[in-house]
């Protein structure tokens, strides 16, 4: 471990090892659901906040202090590498990534030069160095997977139907694969630098891969995401492969070279374990909407998630997708306490009763 990590439960679980208690963190645990975030967040682009290492480190630490979660996730964004090489991408408040001149043609490849992390994203590495001095839990680095980043570059912003992305993929596969190779290189450089600076593990966010069929994912996306995991193998850190709507892709995502997969809330963890043949650790998968419904539902549903995880040796509690901005931090805290206090026992009981049934 690269820094003074005292609690390494998340690392162990992501490696598929048993843990004495169930570790928990939340995607988007930092951010608008926290009043202390809204208090320090400067006006203007999130990218300016990310460029301020002391502020970004503080924002990363806020949920760790408040919730006692077992991991910190770097406060940054999946578009940072493309932004840093000057592709012309920004984040619009309340909307998400927007691109001035979306990716359309062969010529546009020239706008995607190699990332030089030490100079292009020195602020990210500085944030990680500050964090490794402070943290007693692992720091999770991350990058956008080639497909999800490509979808933003091609669509020019968030999309519902991904018409332009699918058009480019299906009408010009040669250009598609060149773009995906460039974007996997960006992810590899960025993640490699994050790990060297002190991140203990990483998550690859392929948030929108679930819009593809298993066959198209296999042909057009998997080779490029898998190249990211392969290139980082010698760093010897665990990794989580995450997407939404990925029921049909989960077996492929579990064979990508990552040590764990993130599961969304559309299937049970038991089903996810069956689909992945138990060959990787699992992370997930409480529906983030349960946090909005109220305390009793959030706790009852969290217990079901824990019971459903019983067959997975390596298991990290998380939501099926990010914390919604309207979430009550008090309810998130009570979920963390439940997972820590009762998680291991709920898993044990569920494992026993499943044995009894067989
Ligand atoms: O706590 C954390 O999870 C760490 C920080 C983090 C952010 N973005 C900060 C952020 C992480 C891991 C991301 C990843 C990210 N960014 C993804 C993949 C994860 C996912 O949700 O599937 C995606 C698709 C993006 C692109 C992006 N950036 C979107 C869709 C948005 C939301 C736009 C909005 O305002 O609602 C952003 C902006 C963003 N990134 C915010 C945060 C906290 C909110 C805006 C702000 O505070 O100004």
How is this structure best summarized?
Helix content is 49%, strand content 11%. It contains 16 helices and nine strands. Bound molecules: coproporphyrinogen III.
Describe this structure in words.
- The chain has 358 residues and is of the alpha/beta class.
- It has a single domain, classed as TIM Barrel.
- The chain is 49% helix and 11% strand.
- The chain contains 16 helices and 9 strands.
- Strands 1-4-5-6-7-8-9 form a 7-stranded parallel beta sheet. It has a two-stranded antiparallel sheet with strand order 2-3.
- Helix 12 links the parallel strand 6 and strand 7 (260-262).
- Residues 27-32, 41, 46, 73, 75, 77-78, 91, 93-97, 142, 205, 207, 322 line the site of coproporphyrinogen III.
Whole-number count of domains: 1
- Widest beta sheet: strand line-up: 1-4-5-6-7-8-9
Order of helices and strands: HHHHEHEEHHEHHHEHEHEHEHHEH
Q: List low-confidence stretches.
A: none
Total count of strands: 9
**Secondary-structure content class:** alpha/beta
Largest β-sheet summary: 7 strands, parallel
């Amino acid at each position: 471990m690269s820094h003074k990590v005292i609690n390494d439960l998340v690392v162990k679980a992501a490696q598929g090892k048993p843990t004495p208690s169930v570790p928990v963190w939340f995607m988007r645990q930092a951010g608008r659901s926290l009043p202390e975030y809204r208090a320090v967040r400067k006006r203007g682009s999130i990218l300016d906040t990310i460029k301020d290492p002391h502020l970004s480190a503080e924002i990363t630490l806020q949920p760790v202090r408040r919730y006692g979660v077992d991991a910190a996730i770097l406060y940054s964004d999946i578009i940072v590498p493309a932004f840093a090489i000057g592709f012309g991408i920004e984040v619009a408040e309340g909307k998400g990534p927007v691109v001035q001149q979306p990716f359309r043609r062969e010529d546009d490849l020239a706008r995607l030069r190699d990332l030089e992390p030490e100079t292009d994203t020195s602020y990210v590495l500085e944030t990680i160095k500050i964090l490794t001095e402070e943290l007693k839990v692992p720091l999770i680095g991350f990058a956008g997977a080639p497909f999800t980043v490509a979808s933003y570059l091609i669509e020019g912003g968030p999309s519902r139907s991904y018409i332009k992305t699918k058009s480019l993929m299906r009408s010009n596969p040669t250009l598609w694969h060149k773009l995906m190779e460039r974007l996997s290189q960006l992810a590899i450089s960025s993640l490699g630098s994050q790990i060297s600076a002190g991140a203990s593990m990483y998550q690859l966010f392929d948030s929108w891969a679930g819009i593809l069929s298993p066959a198209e994912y296999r042909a057009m996306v998997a080779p490029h995401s898998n190249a990211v995991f392969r290139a980082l193998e010698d760093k010897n850190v665990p990794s989580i492969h995450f997407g939404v709507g990925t029921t049909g892709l989960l077996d492929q995502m579990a064979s990508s070279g990552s040590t764990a997969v993130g599961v969304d809330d559309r299937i049970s963890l038991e089903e996810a374990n069956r689909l992945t043949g138990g060959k990787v650790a699992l992370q997930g998968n409480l529906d983030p909407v349960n946090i909005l419904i109220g305390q009793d539902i959030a706790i009852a549903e969290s217990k079901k998630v824990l019971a459903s995880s019983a067959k997975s040796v390596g298991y990290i509690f998380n939501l099926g997708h990010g914390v919604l901005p309207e979430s009550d931090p008090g309810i998130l805290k009570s979920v963390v306490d439940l997972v820590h206090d009762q998680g291991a026992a709920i898993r044990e009981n569920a494992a026993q009763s499943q044995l009894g049934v067989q």
